[in-house]
Amino acid sequence: MNNFMISFIITFIAGISTLLGGFIPFLKINNKDKIILTSLGFASGIMISISILDLLPSSFSYLFTNYSLIKGLFLIVLSFLLGIITFSLLDKLLSKDVDNLYRVGIFSMIAIILHNVPEGIITFILSTSDVRLGLFLGISIALHNIPEGISVMVPVYYGSNNFKKAFFYTLIAGIAEPIGGVVFYLLFKNYISNSMLGFLFSFIAGVMIYLSIKELLPKSLEYKNSSLTLFSFMIGIIFFLIVHLFMH
User: Given 86, 137, 163, 236, which is the most exposed site by the fewest CB atoms within 10 A?
Assistant: First the structure.
């Protein structure tokens, strides 16, 4: 088996774990409201943690290799704000007639696609040059992709009452990692730069923080159990911290 196929398999497993995570809240739990509010609180904790502990530091690392401190900070802030502005515009464009919970799921899917594609690029590129390191990175990414599936599957399912639709959207979010990574690598492997990745990571951090604060947490709090929302939010942060320590 050549390096290309091995790299694709590693990236595919990392991405498809998003779909596997989407089924976790449905295991032996009958209370619909508790499933929704804990899933949204947990997902918001994960997304904020990814943004602050993973995406923004990575953006710093990539941009500061090519730019001065001042210029690098300016580009990080600019791309971060662009992420927030872009999703706030999407919020206004998406029909308000659509169930609010369903809209949260759609936003989560878009955010995770934006997050998974550059992850797929990095995993694929690293795996082609060093399979051992690529495998370790793939496993690490799979661990923190698992809870991301919750933020798509749960709100889409309970917002549309359509399991097939929820499954399909979560599958798209997960499969975006191997497909996006491979396609981008084949088309632009000679043009991928530290500046591009740094800008992209900061942009995605803005998207995820906006989504968490504007959509996920408020929707979770609508179920009038702020203690459980806070608890699930903190569990999301703690979970990511453990995965983050494992990755490093």
Answer: 163
Quick one: which of 23, 32, 39 has its CA closest to 229? Answer: 39
More confident call, 76 vs 194: 76
Report residue 95's pLDDT band, with 50, 70 and 90 as the boundaries: low
Residue 189, both tokens: 């492997």
HSE toward the beta carbon, residue 43, CA cutoff 13 A: 38
What's the token pair of residue 157? 């399912």
Q: Is the dihedral of CA 107, 212, 75, 92 positive or negative?
A: positive
Question: Count of CB atoms within 10 A of residue 98's CB?
Answer: 12
Report which of 207, 208, 188 is spatially closest to residue 196, judged by C-alpha positions. 188
Instruction: Determine the pLDDT at residue 62.
Output: 85
Kindly report whether the global pTM for this prediction surpasses the value 0.90: no
HSE on the CB side for 38, CA within 13 Å? 12
Cβ atoms 151, 46 nearer than 8 A: yes
pLDDT, mean of residues 45-49: 86
